[in-house]
TrEMBL record:
Record's GO cellular component terms: amyloplast; chloroplast
Protein origin, superkingdom: Eukaryota
Protein's UniProt name: starch synthase
Protein's cellular compartments: Plastid, Amyloplast; Plastid, Chloroplast
Pathway info: Glycan biosynthesis; starch biosynthesis
Keyword check for Glycoprotein: no
Family stated for the protein in its record: Belongs to the glycosyltransferase 1 family. Bacterial/plant glycogen synthase subfamily.
Name of one Pfam family that matches: Glyco_transf_5
Keyword Transmembrane helix applies: no
Residues covered by the Starch synthase catalytic domain: 280-521
A Gene Ontology BP annotation from the UniProt entry: starch biosynthetic process
Amino acid sequence: MENSVLLHNGSHNHFRFAFSASRVRNSHDYGVNSSKSMFLFPKALNGQAFAGLSSSSEKMINWCSRGQPWRSKCLKATGKDSVEGEDGDESEDALQATIEKSNKVLAMQSDLFQQIEERKKLVSSIKNSIIGAENELVSYNEKDNSFPNMDLASAGGDHADGDYTSGNAHSNEDEISENPPIVVSGGFDEGEKEPGIYLPIEKIRSSVDSPNKSKEASLGEIRSDILPSFLSKPSESFGLKDEKLEELTEASLHGNNEEIVPNKEDVKSPPLAGANVMSIILVAAECAPWSKTGGLGDVAGALPKALARRGHRVMVVAPRYGNYIEAQETGVRRKYKVERQDVEVTYFHAYIDGVDFVFMDSPMFRQFQSNIYGGNRMDILKRMVLFCKAAVEVPWYVPCGGACYGDGNLVFIANDWHTAMLPVYLKAYYRDNGLMKYTRSILVIHNIAHQGRGPVDDFIYMDLPQHYIDIFKLYDPVGGEHLNIFAAGLKTADRVVTVSHGYAWELKTLEGGWGLHGIINENDWKLKGIVNGIDTKEWSPQFDVHLTSDGYTNYSLETLLSGKPQCKAALQKELGLPIRKNVPLIGFIGRLDGQKGVDLIAEAIPWMVGQDVQLVMLGTGRPDLEQLLGQFDSQHPDKVRGLVCFSVKMAHRITAGADILLMPSRFEPCGLNQLYAMSYGTVPVVHAVGGLRDTVQPFDPFNESGLGWTFEMADANKLIHALWNCLLTYREYKSSWEGIQRRGMKQDLSWDNAAQNYEEVLVAAKYQW
Ligand SMILES: Nc1ncnc2c1ncn2[C@@H]1O[C@H](COP(=O)(O)OP(=O)(O)O[C@H]2O[C@H](CO)[C@@H](O)[C@H](O)[C@H]2O)[C@@H](O)[C@H]1O
């Protein structure tokens, strides 16, 4: 059994279990489409909210100053016309009182405006004095009559992200040295006495780790007494001047706000995370909307925002595969040894929805813009070594909003095998040396089928002390002893999360663990399943930007019965399928590989085309499966569309226009498409496995409960049986169908629940020794 599983895995990757070429996507296309939806929509929404607010306050002023005419209208509206004659005096009194109240409100308003003006002036003078003192910027008056990046809220001490740190004000980018010196670090070759890790912020660390220790003493002591010989101070400095970095990080750790006593009115409610507020750095090889080949990108783009909403200071670190217009260059430059070569990285930064997005730029990433997992096995390995080595140091070198994160209350969230080396570097380079002692690492398993496997000899590229080789070694019945990056990460991380409860269970089985079940069982105590959420800004039928043209329309629970059929007709038209209201339209969206069960659909196709149905399949991946899609399309042009491309827009439109979403995945750690489908009133038919089992409760016609149809085995006949029942309900039991749709749409599938669960894991890790 194990052999067959492993052979199957081995057929589609570079690292044997590693990702396949089929994961290659056009991330550029995706980025463009998706960034539109992510960034234009919130602006539009804010714009509306603001417009609404200003027009209503305008109305109020007009209303109060006009005197009598509003009165009869108001009375009519309250139905009091008829009683005016009876107690006219009382009404007059009430009227007088209202006018007085209104006048008071107006007076308060004008007072407020005056205060705002005064505060503006104060802010201006503070800014001027800073500018003058640093002698780095020309006076804003000479440049421009307004302050860039200066907002009244932050000036007044009212931090938009919660007040847990004052270091997150995003207005000090100018403090970063524009042309910092470049240094080399991370040379872990024992033979070479190359410059190694240098931690510029020993003062801060020592004050956090051991407050009684003299700050000055700590740096020297740690270097000479604790660091192994392969770790030494570089001769030069780094991206920032030490003193500047110290200042910044001091500010980030201590808030520097002891003197600021907020007014009572300014005190905001505490963050949801309460006393558990942490600095969180999520590190992932892809991050939507900038780069995405699948669900990992979605998670890296959305989970951090939900964690930030709870009050945490959150950063995402991802490679910069292309030019991302939102991100500004920080000026920080570092060099790392990769296969004994110095590789330079620079950093770009964007602050969006409360999250610091830090993009690591290097020629090693840039050439893979449209193929982020491209290249041969060694190329990928080296890229990920560079990424993880540099990512561990981001909290020390990359200031976000003027202040580095430092290591106070810091936790890293690594994702899948690509970043599974991060917990290992954190331990080997820092914690083994008494540094970053309280920093924790969580490793999230999105897909155990890709593990970063290679020959044991590849260990040389890891740049780690020799004794670390043991945690990478794994015996495989097919390939013998090999090097396994995921295995090392699982053993080293403080906690392990996977993306559903069902998958957490499956990972511990021979069939579901893909060779890592032994290690997962041994580390069961630190494993937790947390079901993914969905980004409700990006995936909501009510606000979906991809449904605003070409005949599509936004819809909600209230407009389901008109909006969804309109989207269906638009989809049929766009795909060139017959526009028919009552024909069930079935959708499939996903990577075309063994995981997604495309072969089961292929087996079921003859039955499906014998039914009065339409089928649209969107995906890219394995060439043979891509070919299969083309074949379905050409053989059944009136019923089947096979779209071999990566199109976010089309994914959204299929999700809205289809009646049914088919997910016959052989295994599915969580699955996002069924969640998107349910929130769009599209009914899922899924193989009951992993996260699909957790999230799609089967329809029960007796109790009118449930969300879709499930089948228990990855078998074409089982799929057909479930689909047959589904089609029957669609055709014959309209009200049951509508009930399923509405229950799906009513669920709270947002990331907020998941973020709370992640927080529990982070806190557990924090207090674990
Ligand atoms: N051709 C195409 N065009 C446009 N968009 C396309 C597309 N093909 C796929 N997508 C999109 O990519 C994402 C795929 O998400 P999934 O969770 O289904 O899959 P994936 O297997 O990649 O993720 C892994 O990680 C996630 C996150 O944890 C787990 O949910 C999942 O089970 C696990 O396998 C969806 O947003 C989907 O719309």
